[in-house]
Design a protein that fits this description.
mainly beta; globular
């Protein structure tokens, strides 16, 4: 079991394996450690500790997202 860490953990679409690195257009890097519901497979969800903080951050759109996956 992996515990989520703010600033590191991101939930991603099912097409990317756990452990993939996600780099946003602003340079922030995250690791996919969780999954989204199937109907949200076109987005990423950055982990934050509180609902209040999530509401403050709101919905953000990145111009470009790079996903680096591990080869098995």
């Amino acid at each position: 079991m992996v515990y989520p860490i703010e600033g590191l953990t991101i939930a991603g679409p099912r097409r990317f394996p756990f452990g993939s690195v996600v780099i946003l257009s602003d340079g922030r890097k995250f690791i996919i450690q969780d999954r989204l519901a199937k109907h949200f497979d076109n987005r990423f969800d950055i982990f934050v500790h509180s609902h209040k903080r999530a509401r403050k951050l709101g919905i953000m759109k990145a111009e470009k997202v790079i996903v680096i996956t591990k080869k098995n």
